[in-house]
Amino acid sequence: EIEPVVVKEPANATAYRLIGLCRLQLKKYDSAIDALKKARDLTLAREQQDDPTARTALARAYFYSEKYAEAVPELEYVMKQPKVDPAFYYLLGFAYYRSNNEEGAVTALNKAVELSDKDLDSWRVLTEILISRVTANPADAALTAKATAAAQKVK
To answer: Which residues contact 35 (CB under 8 A, 6 or more apart)?
Structure first.
């Protein structure tokens, strides 16, 4: 039981991080968010540095709880780390898309499919965006070709 630790030591960032990670695994996203935010904030206040583990998990918790606007800054932070799991490009692209940042979505999703041509989730969202653009501008042959090529990847 790690939760009694935070009762005795309310400034223990490590305990909050572990609680948040456990809750994330249990798909208790809202309570994971609370614990991970606390870990992030305590680490920043006490150590004057970010907590990459807490922020990465926080990005996922926000994403999985469909709090896309809140996920974006955490995902942008993750993207600045030295080693980034390519799946985070999809998460960022989708979060941008759901936050009405279509250009950001296209950029992130293009990077996702560049890193993994078989990333069907990224191809699906990218295709949806491109098809909506073609619908708005049917005379654009280059855009139509891009949308068609993307749709072929989803088949």
So the answer is: 16, 17, 19, 20, 23
Tell me the pTM: 0.89
Pseudo-torsion of CA 94, 95, 100, 102, nearest 10°? -40
Helix, strand or coil for residue 79?
Answer: helix
In 3D space, the residue among 119, 51, 62, 61 whose CA is nearest the CA of residue 85 turns out to be 119
Question: Tens of pLDDT along 114-133?
Answer: 999 999 999 999 999 999 99
Which pLDDT does position 2 carry in this prediction?
72
**Phi, psi values for residue 63, rounded to 5°:** -60, -50
CA distances from 8 to 3, 45, 111, 150 (A): 9, 19, 45, 54
CA distance 110 to 93: 9
CA atoms within 13 A on the CB side of 76: 11
> Which has the closest alpha carbon to 107: 119, 98, 96?
96
- Tokens 């996203």 found at: 29
